[in-house]
């Protein structure tokens, strides 16, 4: 950051994209989300995407954006952040041209991983997550709490790890303060109170 503006440096620490952005995120699949004006309030910022030359390839028209993954990015136009409730948001997915591939429908949406993305409608009295494919169709119906991205065929939920059919294949104890981490290198880390436990893909506790 220089004089309150963000830019991008190379591995030698030299600027390749001069500081000019009020907000800037890391590059993913060759694009990074940026905003030229943060606004007086966070929900007034408008985000677009630049390429590695610094050119704005997707206009800054979104109030909330996610990173590109598997060719798509979750975005929201209008007022989508700040104090607004989840159920008032309409999030969809755009491609690298900035065109909607999945129309704005969801109150919550994450980037794609292994062909699936976690989303929620945030219905009144119920806030459950499911997974859609690249057509926007539900592959796993919204019934899970606190879902994570798929890693090595499994996704973390509050109850444990589910497979791509939405089956709970590695249940873990539900305890206050517990946290189920994403699978990595064949193991899933579960944090419970002051302890941590590793599970393999068959639900066995590893020493």
Structural description of this entry:
The protein has 207 residues and is an all-beta fold. It folds into two domains: 144 residues, Methylamine Dehydrogenase, Chain H, CATH 2.130.10; 62 residues, no CATH class. The chain has no helices and 22 strands. It has a four-stranded antiparallel beta sheet with strand order 3-4-5-6, with no helix packed on it. The chain has a four-stranded antiparallel beta sheet with strand order 7-8-9-10, with no helix packed on it. A hairpin with a 5-residue loop joins strand 9 and strand 10.
Q: Which CATH architecture of the largest domain? A: 7 Propeller
What is the CATH homologous superfamily assignment of the largest domain? Prolyl oligopeptidase, N-terminal domain
How large is the share of residues in beta strands? over 45%
Q: Radius of gyration, rounded?
A: 19 Å
Give the number of DSSP strands: 22
- Which H/E pattern describes the elements? EEEEEEEEEEEEEEEEEEEEEE
In whole angstroms, the N-to-C terminal distance is 44 Å
What value does the average pLDDT take? 88
Helicity, in percent? under 10%
Q: For this structure, what is the CATH class of the largest domain? A: Mainly Beta
CATH topology of the largest domain: Methylamine Dehydrogenase, Chain H
When the domains are counted, the total is 2
**Judging from the principal axes of the Cα atoms, what is the shape?**
globular
């Amino acid at each position: 950051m220089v004089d309150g503006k963000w830019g991008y440096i190379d591995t030698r620490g030299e600027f390749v994209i001069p500081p000019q952005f009020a907000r800037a995120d890391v590059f993913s699949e060759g694009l990074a989300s940026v905003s030229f004006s943060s606004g007086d309030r966070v929900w007034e910022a408008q985000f677009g995407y630049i390429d590695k030359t610094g050119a704005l390839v997707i206009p800054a028209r979104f109030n909330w954006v996610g990173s590109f993954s598997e060719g798509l990015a979750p975005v929201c136009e209008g007022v989508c952040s700040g104090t607004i409730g989840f159920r008032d948001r309409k999030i969809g997915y755009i491609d690298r041209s900035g065109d909607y591939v999945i129309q704005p429908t969801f109150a919550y949406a994450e980037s794609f991983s292994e062909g699936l993305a976690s989303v929620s409608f945030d219905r009144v009295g119920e806030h459950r997550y499911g997974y859609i494919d690249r057509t926007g169709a539900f592959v796993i119906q919204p019934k899970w709490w606190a879902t994570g991205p798929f890693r090595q065929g499994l996704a973390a939920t509050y109850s444990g790890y589910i497979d791509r059919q939405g089956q709970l294949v590695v249940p873990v104890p539900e305890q206050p303060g517990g946290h189920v981490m994403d699978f990595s290198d064949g193991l899933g880390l579960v944090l419970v109170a002051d302890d941590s436990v590793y599970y393999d893909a068959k639900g066995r506790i590893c020493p």
